[in-house]
């Protein structure tokens, strides 16, 4: 539980910080820009909060590669933003000799054709293979993982995604509640309180920094 | 879990050959292709890979075994000779072995069909000393997660006589295991998807496996993990460790008591137990470990009736690891408990991951819509709402108190490791915030004392992602330390 709490806190903190940073750069963008900024900070926050895993590295690497994230990258990655290549261990493909692959594929297809009745194990194997390919594309940095570590990383990634979704939902309910001030008391008190607890615990000491970062006047309370 | 246990014992009872049982159970998971498997119990039977039963009672559910077995033998590796079958029980005898099988040993979890190797080992000496050591070793490595000292004596396990492959020192195993175990388990466990007690039981029963699989896994992804290790390592498994230690001790005693007067057939049972402690297979990790002196070696023994080929052992180990991971994933992904088979499971996982990603997109869109200025200022969020419940002086006083705490960089939090990880060097802004954002837990506790009671009760993070598990509201109410304002 402790690890989860700390992860959630770290994630929330990072995300809000990231959003603040991106708010500084895009004052008023279109919905799409804002949405991608939020998503970006959420992803980065998740990756940073989780620590060092293969998928986090892959995620950061893929995010760094995108051109539109350059300014954000500057903030987040500091000095290293110009060197995304260093982060991309996970984007290495498993080196495979073309000849060997060709030969093995030929062999496999021959065997498949030889076996009259569809050998269910082979069929199952190919099904699993296909799905593994899909999963590899889904999980960031999954291309270069072998089957076993892919499963492991998927496990981790799924838990982090769940946390991310949860935190974002709570953040949203809080914001919505604070927007409609009148009914904030009545509706969703628990979710809001949870989120506020998180937020408060995360940002307790950083009021000064927040003030510096958010250069816009605060809305009247 | 009860189902698993019953099935496990049922299987074993019906066979009389424990190896076949375990393998059949394991293969049952992934033998979705055979028609026999459609009759198989829906829940993947990891019992096969579990520690063999302590007693060798006669088998009962032969039909179930029969259901598993045909599928198994159909996809048997070519290496198994016909003569090896004789050692298997009558339930298995009728199945022809000699069929060539597309046994691929690619490095994927995919295409290797689960195998049962008929006993090919020459008969094992009924060595009571060895039995004792084997029992101890299996139990100890089962408890190998937590307590290094407890497992020290396991190193005296007899050197490999037959199919010994790689030996790893349990100490190395333990430290690595605790790291990986925590790393793997803590997050899922934390999110409530894996019940603590369930984890204990599962781990305890499958402890030999997990130890091996975890240890193997450390080698795979050891590089960047060290930072992350401590974050989750210290927190969650302490209870698990205590439970496991207790149980392993009980197991040990039971084992030793039972194995004392037993005959050679039982000796094979214990041997199976030991065999399941295979961690590094001969193939790739053998090279790494061969350099390590005596440390870094675990004896991998082939099960009775199985080929001692290093490939088969390696594949067995791999398969067990994979099945274990799939179990975790099953618990994590909602609605997957009834699904068997890799392909369907993977399908579900893919769907779930896609849905989660889509949810994130949607939520970020909604957040952007709600907040046109991207103004997520904390004060605005907090002050407005806190005032409704508390009056801001309290919270602000709480905050200012926190500022006086030393700016510790808590190493046990994931964020600390994010900072120290090689991949991302956050900017100074991030670093500063990271340094100060998480006050010590004592600080939290103190703050929580000041809190109003209703506030305290409500500061509960409902992290029940899995519908099967009730929210840990009660538990968290008692421990507000990590979460209070």
Unreliable spans of chain B are 1-122, 142-249, 255-294, 386-485
Distance between the termini of chain A: 35 Å
Spatial shape of chain A: elongated
Oligomer: heterodimer
Rounded to an integer in angstroms, the radius of gyration calculated over CA atoms of chain A is 23 Å
The major β-sheet of chain A equals: none
**What is the number of beta strands of chain B?**
0
Sheet with most strands of chain B: none
Strand pairing plus helix content of chain B: what structural class? mainly alpha
Average pLDDT value of chain B? 50
**What is the tally of helical segments of chain A?**
9
What is the averaged pLDDT score of chain A?
70
Overall geometry of chain B: elongated
Quickly count the helices of chain B. Answer: 23
Structural class label of chain A: mainly alpha
How much helicity do the residues of chain A have?
over 70%
Can you describe this structure?
The complex is a heterodimer of chains A (221) and B (485). Chain A has helices at residues 2-25, 31-50, 54-65, 70-77, 98-114, 120-138, 147-179, 189-203, 207-213. Chain A has 221 residues and is mainly alpha-helical. In chain A, helix 2 packs antiparallel against helix 3, helix 2 crosses helix 7 and helix 7 (147-179) crosses helix 8. Mean pLDDT of chain A is 70; it is low at 79-90 and 204-221. By secondary structure, chain B is an all-alpha fold. Chain B has 23 helices and no strands. In chain B, 54% of the residues are buried. The model of chain B is unreliable at 1-122, 142-249, 255-294 and 386-485 (pLDDT under 50). The chains are: A mainly alpha (221), B mainly alpha (485). At the A-B interface, helix 1, helix 2, helix 3, helix 4 and helix 6 of A face helix 8, helix 11, helix 15, helix 16 and helix 17 of B.
